[in-house]
Each structure stands twice: as C-alpha cells, then as structure tokens.
Amino acid sequence: MxxxxxxxLSLIALSGLTSTLRAADTSLISVRVEQVxxxxxxxxxESQKKSLKVYVTNGGAQDASVKVKYYIFAKDIxxxxxxxxxxxxxxxxxxxxxxxxxxxxxxxxxxxxxxxxGNTLGGNGRFAHAGKEVQASGDKIVGYGVQVRQDGKVxxxxxxxxxxxxxxxxxx
Length: 172
Prior knowledge:
By secondary structure, the protein is mainly beta. Helices cover 14% and strands 55% of the residues. The protein is built from 1 helix and 13 strands; from the N terminus they run H-E-E-E-E-E-E-E-E-E-E-E-E-E. The chain has one helix at residues 2-25; strands at residues 29-37, 40-41, 45-58, 64-76, 82-94, 98-103, 107-112, 115-117, 120-121, 127-129, 132-134, 137-150, 153-159. Strands 1, 2, 3, 4, 5, 6, 7, 12 and 13 form a 9-stranded antiparallel β-sheet that branches. Strands 8-11 form a two-stranded antiparallel sheet. Strands 9-10 form a two-stranded antiparallel ribbon. A hairpin with a 3-residue loop joins strand 2 (40-41) and strand 3 (45-58). Mean pLDDT is 80; it is low at 6-24.
C-alpha cells in the first residue's frame, strides 16, 4: 500500500515538473503579420507589389533584441513548385511590455498569361488572322512567412499558409 502511495505521489510530482518545464519553454515574444499590397493588372499582365508589416510584441519584463526573418513565396506561372522568391532579415529591439513594428522592403513579381497578340477580326466576329502566341511567363506571389529569432532560436513565427513553412526547413 505504501508503495502505491509513493508511486502516485511521485507521478503527481513529475507531472507538475513537466508542466513547469513546458511553461519555461514558452516565449514571451509573439508576432502578428499584415501584408501590404499594391497589385496592378491589365488584360494579360499582372504586377504584384507586396511588403509585410510585422508586429513583434514582448510580454517580458526586459527589453529583447530579436531578428525578424521574412520570406515571400512564389510560383513560376508555368510550374507548380513553390519557391522562396525573396527573403531577408531585419534586427529589432522590443521594449518591455511593448510592440515594435518592422516593415519589410517591397517585393515585386510580374507575370504574363498565355495569350495571342495581334488578333484581327474578320466577318461575323471570326478571327481573320490568329496573331502571334505569347507564352506564359513570370512569377506569382502565393504567400509569406515570418520567423522571430532570439539568440539564434525561433521564438515566434507566422506563415500565411502553414504548408509554406516546410520550404524553409520547418523552423529552427
């Protein structure tokens, strides 16, 4: 009977220790991201102009120096693979119990859809001359991600699509 009580108390103590250890791993840094867009489109051409507004919040009692690593993901208009189109890293110092705003540089991706150029119409709205075929080309931005690093460790991150995180090694 004493052995059972000892094991029960030991398990309770260990579960409390595990909760404490998990709490110690929880970061006091959090991140929120807004995408700033200025896209332009004509009949077959598209120009995507994007930047990120990253809000880094420090819930701790001390100022924190962090690095904000950002990624812009795109797809070649002809391909299916998602690539890191642009990435970069910006330093930030976040005061205690405050939020710092970090703006990333603007990124531009241009694409052209496949189409025919120089079509002329004949009678009854039919093409008299089919024109020259223009192949699809360029890149389309499909998402973004941000990782906040402190002392080389990812303490907070956000990806517009969770699957994009695998393109940058998943985190740490």
